[in-house]
Write a structure and sequence with these properties.
By secondary structure, this protein is α/β, with parallel strands linked by helices. The protein folds into 2 domains: 168 residues, Rossmann fold; 65 residues, Orthogonal Bundle (DNA polymerase, domain 1).
Length: 246
């Protein structure tokens, strides 16, 4: 775990948290993989986890461009692929339940709400609200931005700026939680604090941790200068380690 300072945010009070959905609040990334895998198998198009990783945080039309990689599909054929993928994906989504929240998410959101923070979701998925309802999290958020909320998607900052506006916050007053490189770049471009979940795709985030079970809401605030100390929980030995921003 590390904390990277950002002088442009120093001493700005954080009043809200904004979360990506896929791979952050619930692991729908695997559902996207299975759905695309089925479509690609039907079409004889190569598809594996390496390609799937490149789709993190980007909308489905852009994801299709990555998958096709220049293959000559006309508009009608592309729409058919997208429709089939959506059909398979929603079939998986309808099987989601409360236990499909990622580890630590419920506790972390409860802590954040108890602290009076305004919470929002900024996702490229057009099915974000449906997924949140399935896992019982929709009522945790004041604002939910999805694939229909803005015309330009990650790595542009528009979705996070839209959610922040709905929350009545400036970007410097909000922390974005992301697991994808496109999402981190979007949040940084918008002027937000950033927490990267995982490791491989989020190294440019201000704070990088394995997941929510390695965090407390209070710890995030303190890590970003809301107090003189930082109480980010080290999952390896369950200690609270001081790590103030430099």
């Amino acid at each position: 775990m590390r904390v990277r300072n950002n002088d442009t945010h120093h001493n700005t009070a954080i009043k809200g948290f904004i979360f990506d959905l896929d791979g952050v609040l619930t692991d729908t990334q695997e559902l996207h993989f299975l759905s695309w895998q089925q479509v690609c198998a039907e079409e004889g198009i190569p598809f594996d986890h390496e390609i799937s990783d490149r789709l993190r945080g980007i909308p489905r039309v852009a994801a299709l461009d990555v998958i096709l990689n220049g293959l000559p599909y006309d508009d009608s054929a592309r729409q058919s692929l997208l429709a089939r993928k959506a059909h398979y994906f929603l079939g998986y989504v309808d099987q989601l339940a409360h236990h499909d929240r990622l580890p630590g998410v419920t506790r972390f959101l409860d802590e954040a709400r108890a602290a009076g923070l305004r919470l929002g979701v900024g996702s490229a998925s057009v099915n974000a609200r449906r997924v949140l309802r399935q896992v019982g999290l929709a009522d945790h958020f004041v604002a939910i931005g999805d694939g229909n909320s803005v015309p330009v998607h990650k790595p542009a900052p528009d979705i996070f700026l839209w959610v922040a506006d709905q929350l009545g916050l400036k970007p410097s007053q909000a922390v974005v939680f992301e697991d994808g490189a496109a999402g981190i770049e979007a949040a940084l471009a918008g002027g937000f604090w950033t927490v990267g979940l995982g490791d491989r795709f989020v190294q440019r985030a201000h704070l990088v941790v394995p997941g929510f079970d390695a965090l407390t809401a209070e710890g995030v605030l303190r890590a970003f200068g809301q107090d003189e100390s930082c109480l980010i929980r080290d999952r390896r030995d369950n200690r609270l380690n001081p790590s103030p921003p430099r």
